[in-house]
Amino acid sequence: MQQTSQYGHNNRSSNYGAKALFILALFFTFNSATYAQTDTVISNNQKIACSIKEITPDAVKYTFPGEDVINTVYKNTVQKIIFKSGRVQTFAEATSYKSVLNVMDYNNVTTTMVESEVRGLFKLNDVSSKSKGTTVYSSQERVKDRAYRKLKIQAAMFGANIVLLTNQRTEGNKYGGYFSSSSTAETNLTGIAYSNQLPDYEKFKASIGSNTNFTAIKRFELGASDSDVSQDDVNKPFTISKITNDNGITIIEGRLKGENDVYLFQLANFNNDSFAIAYKYKGAAYNYIIKI
Questions:
Q1: Any idea which of 163-167, 175-179, 197-201, 282-286 has the lowest mean pLDDT?
Q2: Shared-domain flag, residues 85 and 55
Q3: How far apart are CA 257 and CA 66, in angstroms?
Q4: Residue 8 lies in a domain
Q5: How do residues 64-99 score in pLDDT, each as one tens digit?
Q6: C-alpha angle 272/275/281, rounded to 5°?
Q7: How many domains does the chain have?
Q8: Residues 109, 161: one domain?
Q9: pLDDT averaged over the chain?
Q10: What is the pLDDT of residues 149-196, one digit of tens each?
Q11: C-alpha neighbours within 13 Å on the C-beta side of residue 163
Q12: Residue 155 to residue 261: CA distance in whole angstroms
């Protein structure tokens, strides 16, 4: 009798264990099913599991699971939405932006005077350019094109792929007379450089690891009066003392040999072999390629 009772006790324990495992499996199955019943917003570097409430001409409105508060994200930053039904909706606003992986990708930078086109994007830096004809016979259109080219180059130096123009002033050639002097065609542009996607802060830190000493191998420089960007091979030590995340923008604090007055640099882009830093100093813009 005692032996039968012992076996009965073991059987009851096994039954309890099986029931516990069954309930646990149901719990995870329920949670997985609940997660699968959400919509997914793919925006820049993140995926948002949510419930879509409304899509307006400018934004996407959604709520998080279990919440009633409505959140808003601008369509400029939304690549696509995967609805719980399986339907996928892509957004031309985000897919129209081209990648700027280095300074010479400046042709991928677009310009706009419509503020709604940069809503929700990341503001990187103020940019400006000036171009002037050499003689009174200079083509006004060529002078204007050169100013836009310089503006795009400066934006690309900071990793931007769109510029919101805030001011454009163009003057044509003026021929002098007895009481006035002549002047050549001139175009002045000012704007704000934006990007729809920033270098990933955590991935960048992982790519360089614990190393703090690097070497700058190339320098791009564009001065206010320069007609074009200059490129030079260099061999300069670069030391990192601190890396911070400023609202998504990676700021590097360090020292670049020969630049004693500059110690804050913006991360423009990076890959497995190198990263680029950018800064402004005394009216000129600089971009250095740093070897990893």
A1: 175-179
A2: yes
A3: 54
A4: no
A5: 999 999 999 888 888 899 999 999 998 876 667 899
A6: 175
A7: 3
A8: yes
A9: 85
A10: 999 999 999 999 999 999 998 876 655 544 555 567 789 999 999 999
A11: 31
A12: 22
Q: Are residues 139 and 170 in the same domain?
A: yes
Name the pTM for this structure.
0.76
CA distances in angstroms from 113 to 33, 46, 110, 167, listed in the order given: 46, 28, 11, 9
161, 195, 229: which is the final residue of a domain?
Answer: 195
Residues 6+ apart with CB under 8 A from 189: 128, 129, 130, 147, 148, 151, 165, 167, 168
Domain finish residue from 136, 169, 195: 195
Q: Which residues contact 19 (CB under 8 A, 6 or more apart)?
A: none
User: In sequence order, what are the beta bridge partners of 256?
Assistant: 238
SS3 labels along the chain: CHHHHHHHHHHHHHHHHHHHHHHHHHHHHHHHHHHHCCEEEEECCEEEEEEEEEECCCEEEEECCCCCCCEEEEHHHEEEEECCCCCEEECHHHHCCCCCCCHHHHHHCEEECCHHHHCCCEEEEEEEEEEECCCCCCCHHHHHHHHHHHHHHHHHHCCCCEEEEEEEEEECCECCCCCCCCECCEEEEEEEEEECCCCCHHHHHHHHCCCCEEEEEEEEEECCCCCCCEEEEEEEEEEEEEEEEECCEEEEEEEECCCCCCCEEEEEEECCCEEEEEEEECCEEEEEEEEC
Residue that has been written with the tokens 């310009």 in this structure: 111
On whether both 229 and 206 belong to a single domain, the answer is yes
Which domain, by its residues, includes 145? 103-195
Produce one character per residue of 190-203: b if its CB has 16 or more CB atoms within 10 Å, e if not. bbbbbbbbbbbbee
- Domain contains 31: no
Residues with Cβ within 8 Å of 140's Cβ and at least 6 positions away in sequence, in order, are 133, 170, 172, 173, 185
Token pair listed for 253: 């604090």
